[in-house]
Give the backbone structure.
Amino acid sequence: MKIAIYSRGIENDQNRDMDSFLAELYANKMEPVFFQGFFNQFYSSVNIKGKYSTFSSADDLDESVDFMISLGGDGTLLDTVSLVQDKGIPVLGINYGRLGFLANIGKEDMHSAIKALVERTYVIEKRTLIHLDADIPVFKNIPYSLNEFTLQKKDSSSMIKIHTYLNGEFLNTYWADGLIVATPTGSTGYSLSCNGPIVIPTAENFVITPIAPHNLNVRPIVVSDSSVISFEIEGRNENFFCTLDSRTEAIDTSVQLAVKKCSFTMNLVRLSDHHFLDTLRRKLMWGADVRK
């Protein structure tokens, strides 16, 4: 079994965790395929006892790779979208970061996670991706994201006007610092920090959330993910930022943009005893009494 391993990097005090992780893989006859940048960071500090290989881009991954494991936080797992692309490789996130809604398997559960992969006792969750269409080439050959698409004003410029349409029908003009269109997966990310609602991952919806709107009565709205959401942007500054998850492009107001549901999904691996509602309660401390 081949396991691709991606990480942005680990701290020096996590080398022992990495040793334990690799020992688990080799004990279960798994061949690691390390992301080259990550491998360059840790290879001299970690004991690698078995066969391995490396990859540098999505082109290096093929059907021989059974799973990808993300070591880090949610941002690290989001990076894997541009690596697995439409290959359907299931992704499992082990949390070396902080909050971890997506990478919600703790280091202490690493043995259980590897065992679940070997015994095929995991659950595959098909997560909706959002796809961006534009009349100019943007984001190269990866015009999609797992969490959200955003439009944002550039630097400290004044707010922008975002004329927004659903399937060609006018929805609203947002006077704001920007606008977020989040998937159900992304509803617990940037959108949530801007007072957007939490949406169950299996819901077939997008959430449109304004960023610091000028009119306080303008609230987030939930729409069907069968909708095509298009935009026209105005502002004193002709340039603004367009993002897909953590990737950013600077474009101008002449560009025509629209987002819709992607034609393929991302396969996230969930342990059978890990559930979204449990993660939600635990991460947001719902019901916790913090009084002393």
Q: What stands out?
A: The two ends are 50 Å apart (CA to CA). The CA atoms of residues 83 and 113 lie 21 Å apart. The mean pLDDT is 91.
